[in-house]
């Protein structure tokens, strides 16, 4: 290989020649390639862990706060765990455990008869109603008192 003077320097010519001869896989592209570049330095890896940890923790805590209320509480918890799992192995294990538990519950529920399914539905709706009632009570709204006015 002949080294030529160029604006980019001889080191770049040597580096590109070595990369062409290398048996290593090509660098990933897109977000994964960008994340690999960030993780390639200590400061970048630490900063990424801190940012991912904060975002994931906020999502998990926010989701857990939303769980008792109607809405996407568990979905946000699982999304937060998925964010955390990009940088933390323990979060990946918790996420896999949660997915497996949900799958097991769903399979069990599908095998049950209509009587038990209706019972589970009634208990779920009753629990949601109690949670909404006490949530509104903390805001100063008494739904039972309002309903009694109309009766």
From TrEMBL:
It comes from Nonomuraea marmarensis. The keyword Zinc does not apply. The chain crosses the membrane at residues 46-67, 73-95, 116-136. This is TIGR02611 family protein. Residues 12-25 have a biased composition (Basic and acidic residues). Residues 1-25 are annotated as: Disordered. The lineage of its organism: Bacteria, Bacillati, Actinomycetota, Actinomycetes, Streptosporangiales. Keywords: Membrane, Transmembrane, Transmembrane helix. It comes from the Bacteria.
């Amino acid at each position: 290989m002949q080294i030529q003077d160029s604006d980019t320097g001889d080191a770049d010519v040597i580096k590109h020649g070595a990369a062409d001869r290398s048996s290593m896989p090509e660098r990933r592209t897109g977000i994964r390639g960008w994340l690999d570049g960030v993780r390639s330095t200590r400061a970048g890896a630490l900063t990424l862990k801190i940012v991912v940890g904060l975002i994931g923790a906020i999502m998990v805590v926010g989701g857990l706060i939303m769980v008792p209320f109607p809405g996407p509480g568990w979905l946000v918890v699982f999304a937060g765990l998925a964010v955390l799992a990009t940088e933390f192995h323990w979060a990946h294990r918790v996420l896999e455990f949660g997915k497996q538990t949900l799958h097991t519950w769903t399979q069990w529920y599908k095998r049950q008869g209509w009587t038990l399914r209706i019972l589970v539905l009634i208990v779920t709706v009753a629990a949601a109603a109690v949670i909404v009632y006490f949530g509104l009570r903390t805001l100063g709204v008494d739904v039972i008192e309002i309903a009694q006015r109309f009766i």
